[in-house]
Amino acid sequence: MRKAVVFGTALAVALAGCAGVAVAQNAGGEAAPAAAGPAGPPPGMPQPITMAQRPGVIGGEALYVEYCIACHGPNGMGTGLLQRAGRPEPLLEARGGLPAQFIITAARNGIGNMPAIPRGEVSDEQLQAIADYLAAGPHAVAGGA
Ligand code: HEC
């Protein structure tokens, strides 16, 4: 009988320990999304910039948001690599004095780790508009680097 009590107590302590771990894991936040519905990015992940964040943009700026900002936004790998390369302003939009022709050549041929962007993706007219927009910088970028 006494043995049973001791065993029971040990079991209760062990179970309580497990429950504590489970509670601690849940306390970490909404880490475990239910299988149903889209999980979304983990909390704290930088959100990609899309037209939704910059409604109302037009012309070269809109094309830049569509085709370039995934890599050249504040958290983009293009911005990161340009920062590592020591550019005074790694955000292309916030940089002044970028010649349009340099932008066009870089985008068409690729540059360093940036892949070439073919005409099937961005037409000459569209790239010209993007280059004119960037060359007219520096632009004030909301929520920039
Ligand atoms: C797939 C990601 C990606 C996309 C999309 C992208 N870029 Fe880039 N871009 C990069 C990376 C990475 C670099 C840095 C290259 C290096 O130095 O290795 C770069 C560098 C550049 C540079 C050179 C800047 C400098 O100071 O040397 C220009 C100009 C540029 N990109 C323009 C554009 C334009 C315009 C677009 C849209 C039409 C665009 N990029 C889209 C990744 C991208």
What would you note in describing this structure?
48% of the residues lie in helices and 0% in strands. The protein has helices at residues 2-27, 59-67, 69-72, 77-84, 100-109, 124-135. It has 145 residues and is mainly alpha-helical. Mean pLDDT is 81; it is low at 6-29. It is built from 6 helices and no strands. 17% of the residues are buried. It has a domain at 59-135: Cytochrome Bc1 Complex, Chain D, domain 2 (Orthogonal Bundle), CATH 1.10.760. It binds heme C. The site of heme C (HEC) has 23 residues, from helix 3, helix 4 and helix 5.
Task: Supply the helix-strand structural class.
Answer: mainly alpha
Please compute the radius of gyration using only Cα atoms.
26 Å
**Chain-averaged pLDDT:** 81
Total beta strands: 0
Organism: Alteraurantiacibacter palmitatis
InterPro entries: Cyt_c-like_dom, Cyt_c-like_dom_sf
Keywords: Heme, Iron, Metal-binding, Signal
Pfam families: Cytochrome_CBB3 (PF13442)
Briefly say what this structure is.
By secondary structure, this protein is mostly helical. It contains 6 helices and no strands.
